[in-house]
Give the backbone structure.
Amino acid sequence: MDSTTVRGATIDYDDLGPSTGLPILLIHGHPFNRTLWAPQTAALTEAGYRVVAPDLRGYGRSSVSTGKVLLADFADDLAALLDHLDIERAVVGGVSMGGQIAMEVQLRHPGRVRALVLSDTSAPAETAEGRRFRNRLADRLLAEGMDGYAHEVIGKMLAAYNVTAMPDVTARVLEMMCATDPRGAAAALRGRAERPDYRDVLAAVEVPVLIVVGADDVYTPVAEAESIRRLVPHSALAVIDKAGHLPGAEQPGRFNAVLLEFLAARM
């Protein structure tokens, strides 16, 4: 684990694998941290890739910015981290909110993106109802902390049947969620409530794009992934069976096989 200061925040990150390998930037979702990607990091570095997996500001071991953190803030942090690491261009992948941050990187820093990997995410702008929900949830997390929320949504983060079938995965995901600083989670929720529409960005993408979704994702169902696939005609779509919103954690072998095949074929 390493750390650096970018744009007024201390960002902790892993930079693993050979320095000469193709760089892959992995962006976790809410309310997790970089260890969500541990199964992918292991597989990718073994295959000779260089993997950079940061804790976003407000999450994991990175410093907390209170108030509101926009997806644009996260994207600019990541571009600055790539600068710090002397990485000009990287494969940029993210899950859920991390996928939206990857789209924001494509919007704001397109020259840094060699390919996109979008897992269990959504491209349209936030709805009015969604904005109200995220701001209410931010208030709740600040008032109550993370534990109640984490246990309430674990059956949506993972496919409900995996919560009991995969106790080790469930425990790992819950640990990440409960360890998140409520101030960081709330700031990200308020920023995400203002997210723009990324459909035009995706429609104009010329780099390779991999779309992955859990077959039983209730937050961003397969239909959401299919809509992104239609926006990006040259993209590849993989549906991971027996997984929900976090297929990289629930079915790491299947997720990794899809990712490695994509990289071998397109990079």
Remarks:
- The domain at 2-266 is CATH 3.40.50.1820 (Rossmann fold).
- The two ends are 27 Å apart (CA to CA).
- The CA atoms of residues 14 and 108 lie 23 Å apart.
